[in-house]
Design goal:
156 residues; alpha+beta; GMP Synthetase, Chain A, domain 3; 2 domains; 3 strands; 56% helix
């Protein structure tokens, strides 16, 4: 009878570099350090109103890249005005010309009239829900639905 001498388990040291290499290709050092240190790089005033999303490098090196910045509603003109200042601060942070262009993306996901309308509609539906529950004549079912009402509209 033969015994197997080969192990089916691999050492972590053999597989870890392969895993890290694929992950580092997706998210590079420049992008991670910009996202992590955004406030220190551009300052409080700019950091309050915009944030980096992604950095694109066309040549494969970490130079002459484009950074996509998401800007709060109403601040895009101000950020466009400070475009060169932001590029200079980013390149000064890295010590070489890492960024050459900024793409501004406006963020419209703030407080809108639609979100306020949805809150009002939720209150109306809560009243309708309670009214319908009180019309039910079976006490056990009515009690169970009242418990459900408390969990459904807990956030309000």
């Amino acid at each position: 009878m033969k015994f197997r001498t080969q192990s089916y388990f691999k050492q972590i040291g053999d597989t870890l570099p392969k895993i890290l290499k694929t992950k580092l290709k997706k998210v590079n050092f420049v992008e991670m350090s910009v996202i992590k240190n955004w406030k220190e790089i551009v300052g409080d005033d700019i950091a309050k109103n915009c944030w980096p999303i992604k950095i694109f490098f066309s040549d494969g090196n970490n130079s002459n890249g484009k950074i996509a910045i998401k800007v709060k509603r109403g601040w895009s003109l101000e950020i466009e005005y400070k475009n060169q200042e932001i590029i200079e601060k980013l390149n000064q942070y890295f010590g070489y010309k890492a960024i050459s262009k900024i793409n501004i993306i406006q963020n419209f996901e703030e407080y809108t009239v639609e979100s306020k309308k949805n809150k009002i509609e939720k209150k109306i539906t809560k009243k309708k829900f309670f009214k319908e529950i009180t019309n039910i004549k079976q006490p056990k079912l009515q009690k169970a639905l009242l418990k459900l009402d408390k969990t459904l509209f807990k956030s309000e």
